[in-house]
What does this fold into?
Amino acid sequence: MVKDRIIKIYDALSDRYGPQGWWPVIKQIKKGEFGCFYHKNDFSFPKNKDELFEICVGAILTQNTSWKNVEKALINLKNAKMLNCDSIIKANKETIGELIKPSGYYNQKSERLKIFAEWFNSLKKDPTREGLLTLKGIGEETADSILLYGFSIPSFVVDAYTKRILSNLSLINENSSYGEIQRLFESTLPRDFRLYQEYHALLVEHAKHFYMKKQNKEDFLLSLS
DNA sequence: TTCCAGGCAATAC
DNA sequence: GTATTGCATGGA
It folds into this structure.
């Protein structure tokens, strides 16, 4: 049964990789120097509103972009004292674009950050998925990441890795929709944001270890024939 | 040099 | 409704 395997896969990944501590947050290493860190076994993040905003910014910047590049962009913003909602609202797109350049698509992303900041600023209570999805630049995965890691609301995040792993294990069809995959997890697992956070992070970790880049994979297969 | 990365919106059919 | 394309940088 598929649902049993969803549980067993979590246990196996958890045994293999241990606690993940997502979402990584910026921390001061020493005076004037910042780094990005995970926080294993600590689910008390985000600690404040700026940190919450930072997680949302990271979720937008990491769209189709490696996290390493996003870190550079986040640290640029932090050094410029602009990793907060007010600063993003006040700054012009060109200024933001220059700082987030390492994360790619900087013209689109700087506009999307400004749209998001306006919305974030007028937020009175916890957001809904539907509300987030009305924003230009926020699709399903980004909305779920913001809900799950920013607001600690159990909304399972489905990304390209999740799809690839489940498809490889024949647990889903190649062309299953986002919603179908999300429902598979959400109808199987206890509704606990900590579990959802760890599970998604573990899938990404496993994919990074196990799945090789296309070219390397082909070379690997060729070497066996 | 080519390919890829923790997607999304606009456009085309 | 589903398929394709543009967006951009840095690392392997």
